[in-house]
Amino acid sequence: MSSSGYWKRGGAPRVEGRFFEAADWDTVECRLCPHLCQIAPSRTGACGVRSNRDGRLITDNYGKVADERAVDATVLPLYHYYPASRWLRIGMKGCNMRCPFCNTFSFSQLAGVRTLGRSAADLVAAAEAQGLRGISFGVNEPLVSHEFVVDVFRLARQRGLHTHIATSGTWCLDPYREIVEVTDALTFGFKGFDGGYLLGECGGHLEFAMQNLATAVRHGRHVEATLLVMDGQANWREQAGEFGKWLAGIDTEIPAVLLGIEPAFAWKGEQTSRESLFEVRDLLLGHLRSVYIHDPELGFMDTACRECGRLLVRRGLAGTILTHGAEGGCPNCGAALPFALQDVARDVAAEAQQRPDAPGAPARDVHTDDQDA
Ligand code: SF4
């Protein structure tokens, strides 16, 4: 991390959250995600990072960065948006879900991760100094850091950087609209496609993720979807089929990226077999045009021209390499490339109005570290 940050147990200044309502008995109701936590005085919501302080909802993790590193777009994962580009990936703390197979639980479940206070300007400067394509929030669920993500992305886009989130997609509509306005690309992570399992075992809401993915597509954002294949469940094939049909009904061009489950956190089951991943890939290719398996050992991470089969993008342990020479199309047959290499259209004037310091922008109450105790 850059030396401009600072270590501190209490962390960066606390900022008042948005999307909450005062309720009875000095509680506040958080309206950021469908849990709609009723938070009693001095208590914290289910995500562990949004608190009731004197009847106001305070973000406990604003500007507290737990992980910051330059990574390849494939790592995010982001397969069809500027392949081979490099991004500043930011991880923070907290999550509104509690998946037993979470492989970043030290971040999501607040298990002893240290943080560094970073401002939006710090992160934008770090991305610019390293010549990166943009800034991505992932590792943990970005929605629980909503206000910070929005502030970072607004500034990043003003500076010509691109923005991406890897999310479960379970935001309430109003905060989600705000995020979509400032985000170029979104990767939605589906932990299977069984709403009952997701709610019961993970605390997630499948219908919100489905609705929010469709909204991002309607607004012209670049969208990709990952599917965690849990072949220990009786209906895993049916889930994969339903996922493929639903995604194809929105757009057959949305890339699907398959993930296998691995032993982690509280997971007692088996890890996904490679045969199951191959089977789901074949099944999804009956619905979608691009299906990848996010494992370099299995050999389904590359992108080839759909017309002539010429290799266009090679992905592997050594990184991602563009094997074509021109942005206009396949260098062999001239067919259109199946991924984005153009800037997403942006309304620069509207974004200037959204700046936190712009006239009419919503005020943010900043709380000092003295209040952390
Ligand atoms: S964001 Fe956190 S506090 Fe707010 S409703 Fe969701 S889990 Fe609860």
What does this molecule look like?
The protein is an alpha/beta fold. It has a single domain (about 65-350), classed as TIM Barrel, CATH 3.20.20. It is about 25% helix and about 20% strand. It contains nine helices and 21 strands. It has helices at about 105-110, 120-130, 145-160, 175-180, 195-200, 205-220, 235-250, 275-285, 350-355, and strands at about 5, 15, 20, 30, 40, 50-55, 55-60, 65, 65-70, 85-90, 115, 135, 160-165, 185-190, 220-230, 255-260, 290-295, 305, 310-315, 320, 365. The strands form five sheets. An eight-stranded mixed beta sheet has the order 9-10-12-13-14-15-16-17. A four-stranded antiparallel beta sheet has the order 6-7-2-21, with no helix packed on it. A three-stranded antiparallel beta sheet has the order 1-11-8, with no helix packed on it. A hairpin with a 5-residue loop joins strand 3 and strand 4. The longest helix has 15 residues, at about 235-250. The chain starts with 5 loop residues before the first strand and ends in a 6-residue tail after the last strand. The model is unreliable at about 1-10 and about 340-373 (pLDDT under 50). The structure holds iron/sulfur cluster. Iron/sulfur cluster binds near residues 35, 36, 37, 47 and 50.
Helices and strands in order, then pairings?
Layout: E1 6-7, E2 14-16, E3 20-22, E4 28-30, E5 38-39, E6 50-53, E7 56-59, E8 64-65, E9 67-72, E10 86-91, H1 105-108, E11 116-117, H2 120-129, E12 134-137, H3 146-158, E13 162-167, H4 173-182, E14 185-190, H5 195-202, H6 206-218, E15 222-229, H7 236-250, E16 256-260, H8 274-284, E17 291-293, E18 303-304, E19 311-316, E20 319-322, H9 348-354, E21 366-367
Parallel strand pairs: 10-12, 12-13, 13-14, 14-15, 15-16, 16-17
Antiparallel strand pairs: 1-11, 2-7, 2-21, 3-4, 4-5, 6-7, 8-11, 9-10, 18-19, 19-20
The structure holds iron/sulfur cluster.
